[in-house]
Amino acid sequence: MTARYPLVLNATTIQEIQSTDTINLSLGTGLPLTTGVTGTLPVANGGTNLTSFTSGGAVYASSTSALTTGTLPVASGGTGQTSYTDGQLLIGNTSTTQLTKATLTAGSNITITNGGGSITIAATAGGVSTGKSIALSLIFGF
């Protein structure tokens, strides 16, 4: 048995269609996106207006009407960075309103050792007997 459905537009029955019929909708709801849309779906119609994405990249609004993919900038809640070396930290930079990659700098009687996922800070205090030191260690790991 073939099911029959009324095709309705503006509360007026236009015609009756059967479940075996093929129809093309130009205005309506339930438009199948896999067969009813060709090309790139624009943002105004609920799409991204993008045809490809960067692996590991984020999709974010770059303006009030455009989406972009890539490294998430600081203004959109990201770091703006894509790679790091051992011991690097992100430091706020008011002159650029960005995050700057930097490492700690050793000072007098201080040594800094940068490792994968760690930073070790050691201090040698004055007045300690020869051959003895006081070490302070901070480990940042995930």
Could you spell the SSE succession in H and E letters?
Answer: EEEEEEEE
Strand adjacency order, main sheet? 1-2
* Helix percentage range: under 10%
* Terminal residue distance: 62 Å
Please count the beta strands (DSSP E, at least 2 residues each): 8
Give me the secondary-structure category.
mainly beta
Walk me through what this model shows.
It contains no helices and 8 strands. The protein is mostly beta strands. It has a domain at 4-38. A hairpin with a 5-residue loop joins β3 (58-61) and β4 (67-70). It is rod-shaped.
Which features would summarize this protein structure in a list?
142 residues, single chain, mainly beta, rod-shaped, 0% helix, two-stranded antiparallel sheet
Short description:
The protein is 0% helix and 30% strand. It has no helices and 8 strands. A hairpin with a 5-residue loop joins strand 3 and strand 4 (67-70).
Please specify the SSE layout and strand pairing.
Elements: E1 4-9, E2 12-18, E3 58-61, E4 67-70, E5 89-93, E6 98-102, E7 110-115, E8 118-123
Antiparallel strand pairs: 1-2, 3-4, 5-6, 7-8
